[in-house]
Structures are given as structure tokens and as C-alpha cells.
Amino acid sequence: MSYANVSEMLANSEFLAKVEDLAKSYPEPRTALLPALHLCQAELRHVPVEFQAFIAERLGMAPAHVRGVVTFYEMYSEKQLGRYLLQVCKTLPCMLAGSEILLEHLQAKLALKPGQTSGDGRFTLITVECIACCDGGPALMVNETLHRHVTPADADRILGELE
Amino acid sequence: MAEVLKLLTRNVGKANSTNVDSYMASGGYEPLMTALHKMSPEQVLGEVKASNLKGRGGAGFPAGLKWSFLPKGKDRVKYLVCNADESEPGTFKDRLLIENDPHAILEGMILAGFATQAAGAFFYIRGEMPQGFRIFQRAVDQAYERGFLGKNILGSGFSFDVYVSRGAGAYICGEETALMNSLEGKRGEPRLKPPFPAGFGVYGQPSNINNVETYANVPLIIKNGGAWYAAIGAPSAPGPRLYGVSGHVKRPGVYELPSGVNLRELIYEHAGGILGDRPLKAVIPGGSSVPVLRADQIDVTMDPDGLKKVGTMVGSAGVIVMNDTVCMVKAMVNLMQFYAHESCGQCTPCREGTHWLKLILQRIEEGGGKPGDVDLILDVSNNIMGRTICPLGDAAAMPAIAFATQFRDEFEAHIREGRCPMAHTHMTVAV
Ligand SMILES: Cc1cc2nc3c(=O)[nH]c(=O)nc-3n(C[C@H](O)[C@H](O)[C@H](O)COP(=O)(O)O)c2cc1C
Ligand code: SF4
Ligand code: FES
User: Fold this and answer.
1) At which of B300, B323, B346 does a domain end?
2) B420 CA distance to ligand 1 centroid (A)?
3) Is the pTM of this model over 0.90?
4) Is B355 part of any domain?
């Protein structure tokens, strides 16, 4: 995480310049809403209401509209997620390839249920629907990195290599 | 055995295949130069119509015909959209093109823009493909540097811009009007049609949307001619096709073959046969939204006519293979959880129906099935069909009906015995 909190982020000129770039990247500024929310989610690991109000103002939308968008899409979270977001694909092709075994393993190893974040803020474990890697099932994404054909032993290695 | 093609996948696996220089080294952007300097927009459209290219996103609508629905001329600002939301369970072919050959997709988009005289295009990629997003954005930046995008492209007088945007985790945003709402910074809720995108699309402007693979075919068509393309594979839906095979096969992956390949051949020859050399039980031939087939129904061609004979569809050409260890109730629970989770909730039949299908199936799988449950599943499904704003409702109901009808005995056995008769065999690991 590069900013301590949302106020620090919103006071940072580099961050504000990135938002301005996004707002000018499309024929109409409103198209920048989803990309801007991604930016915030990546920086803070959640999208707090303070950012929602800020981006609503900048793009000329009602804060309630922005909140509706944040809550509609799976990848935005109002609660802060762990430093590593473990995304286990659970849809049919991955299930056929053993995603249940992978999920059980991760649950036991981390003592987390899907949706939970570890006490030290390191890991959030979630299940996701098909991520278009069905020939590589069971698929696991750790933040932005996709891992294919992940056995429990692979999962141990992948987690072991994280800081 | 049908020969594996290297048309759409010609650059897959090559070094630096995503770079503009290596794309150009193998003849990339030459079709665009030909079109801009030697052809009129009408001629480009004519070749695409002659090719009989059908959309690869699921519905198989003729691409040239769809382009011709846009108003002619330049009086109104028109937009194109490339649908890179790829979220249909069992579908992973667009990822291959995006991550390996972004310029082929981009060239197809620019050619389509020239043919329709559009002002620009949006590339909307699902949020869970961050690498693909960066690869495509870089391809767009390179195309601007080389003058393939922007004002007065290659001195032709034609100007065209491409904007890259990301989804954020919602299957429904693959539906064309939900995608357009998402591009406008809204919740991904489908719009009531009419008006259709050709008249009222992104920002209310006339818009055309196609799938990634559809656009990637266009440079091939302009290079080799519509007649050449129309002669490849099944005449009713010709061309090379990216078939994705997943589940219980020895070699899951994307196979580029002429459209209309035999389904048995695809599974047993190209994908190496069934995992564990076990008996085949079921195949979903075109992504999770199309009706499932039994093992005795796979001697068919993978084209609309061939699959119609066994009551199903090509869809996204994502083939999900299940061997005899799979419990059909459990497989269907998994899919109904998916649809219940992904319903946007606007229409009561879809929102409530998918939820109830999930609950009924979970109850059966857990041993609490009641006599009449299979008919209840069919009744709920039939009450979704045709009663919703967008096709997601049907996309859930069609496979539900097929599972419950094709494998009715297995559902009844669960209900009768009050347990899963296959619990001990559940799912083998394919890795
Ligand atoms: C629920 C739903 C999800 C869809 N998802 C996708 C998708 O991920 N990718 C895609 O290309 N088309 C998807 N479609 C189809 C699109 O609405 C649209 O028909 C397609 O992008 C048109 O492109 P084509 O004519 O080139 O096939 C989906 C449709 C529905 C109803
Ligand atoms: S059919 Fe389902 S997904 Fe489509 S608009 Fe209605 S509720 Fe939403
Ligand atoms: S089902 Fe897991 S990636 Fe498709």
C-alpha cells in the first residue's frame, strides 16, 4: 500500500494527476469512473466513501450513483482487503479439475473461510466465477498474477514465495 | 482428421508476438493499408458480407449485416465496441488472442471502423485480465505511434481512435447493452431493446459491438478475400474457429480448426481423449449457457446445423467435458450458483428463478429432494424463458432444462435415495 489512508492519497499530486489523466482519456469523463475506482482499489485495497465522494464530484455524478456502481461490481470492496487477494475459481471447469481440493487446502492452511481476511491483514481468501482460464484449472489468482493447474503443493510454494 | 489451422493463431507462441514490429514483419497492417488506399468503405463491408463471417461471441449473428445496420455516412458520431469481457464458463479463447496477438484484434477493429465510418472504438476487457489490459493498451499506444490510429490514418483522410476500458467483475457486462452502460460509468444492467445499439448505443450514439475473435478474423478476410474465407469449414458459419476444450480431457486447450469439426474428433483426437481413459458422460459444447449433451450424442459437427440436430448450440465454442465420475446434480448446482450470482436482478423471473433453481438443486444434492422436484425445476425454468430483459435468463433456463431432461434418471435417483449415489466418486483431479 503506497498511501497510509484516503486523505493522504487525495492530497497527493501524483495521484490526482493520474485521476485527471483518466478523466481526459475518454470521449466523456463518465467512462473514467470504473478505471478510477480500480485505481483507488489498487492503492488502498478498498474504495472508501471519501473517495466515492471525491470522484463523484470530479466526474459530475451523484455520490449515491458512485456507491451503486461500487457495490454492483465484484472487484470493488468497501471493506479493506488483505495485502494478497487469493482468488480461487470455483466454476464448473475448474471444479472438474479439482478446485474444491485447492479451496479446502487454502481454507485449512490459512484458517480462513471465503470472504475472510486474516487478522494480520496479509491474506483475503475469496472464490470467483470463471476467469477465462478453464484449460488451466484449477486456476488461482494472487492479486494480479494468474496461476494455472494449482495443486495444494503448488499453492504452498506460491504462498511461500510471497513476502 | 481435420487439420489444425494457423490463421487466427498464426502469431501465438512467436517471440514478441504482441509487439507492433513483429506483427508487421509477418504482414500485419498490410490489409489495413490495402483497405485505406485501394478500397472504399463499401468494398470492405462487401468483402466481410461475402465472407459470411458470423459473430463469435455466442449468438452467431452475421457480422457484415450487423455493420450495415449502422446509419451511413458521417452525420452522426458512431462507435464500435470490442467485447473482451470473456466470462462465459468454459470460454478462454479471447484471452489467447488478447495476450498473444493484440494487433490482429486492433487491425480488425480499425478495418471495421473504416467500413462503417465510425469515429472510434472501445475495447472493454474484463477486470480479471490485468495482463491483457496492459498488453492491449500498449498495442494501442504503438498503433498511434505508427500512424495506424489517430487523425488522417496513413494519409487516407480516415480518422479513428481506440479507447481501452476495464470491467470490474460482472458476467452480465458481457451482454452488449450492459457493457455499454458499464462503459458509461453505470451499473452493468442490460437495457431494454429496442432501441438497438445500431441506433442508440454508447452515449446514445449509433454503435456496433463484436467479439474479440470476430474482429480478429477481419484482417484475414481483407487479405485473402471474402470468397476464400467463405470456403473454409461449414458453409453456414464458415471460417477458422477457436474451440476451447476444458474439463476431463487429457489435453485441455484452445484448438484452431475449421468450423464444423466433428465433436468426437475434437475431444478424442485433438484434446487427447478422456482423462483417466474413463467413459465419457456428458459434454457442454458451447459454454455453460447451451444445453448439455449425453455421451451418445457427440457424433455431430460443431456448427449451428450439426448441433441443432441434438438440440444444442455452438455458443462460444467452449467445450466442457465430463467423465463418468461427475455427478450431474452437482455439476448443475455449480452452474445455477453461477447464474444466480450473476443475475443483475432487474427482472423478477431471472432474479427469483435462478435463485430458486439453485436452492432446489442444493436441496436435492444434499439429500432433501422431494418427488416432483424435477418437474418443479422444469416449471421454474420454463417460466424464466422468454420473460426477461436480456438473454441471461434464458442462458440459465436452457441448460437447466437440458440437465434435468437429459439426466432425469440421475436426478430421480438422488431424490429417491435421499443422497448422492455418486458421492464417493466425486470429481477427479485433472492436473
Ligand atoms: C449474459 C451474457 C453474457 C455475454 N458475454 C459475452 C462475452 O463475454 N463476450 C462476448 O463477446 N459476447 C458476450 N455476450 C454476447 C454479446 O451480448 C454480443 O452478442 C456479442 O458481443 C456480439 O458480438 P458478435 O456478434 O461478434 O458475436 C453475452 C451475452 C449475454 C446475454
Ligand atoms: S434477464 Fe437477468 S441478467 Fe438479464 S436483465 Fe433480467 S435480471 Fe438482469
Ligand atoms: S472455470 Fe475456472 S477459469 Fe473457467
Assistant:
1) B323
2) 35
3) yes
4) yes
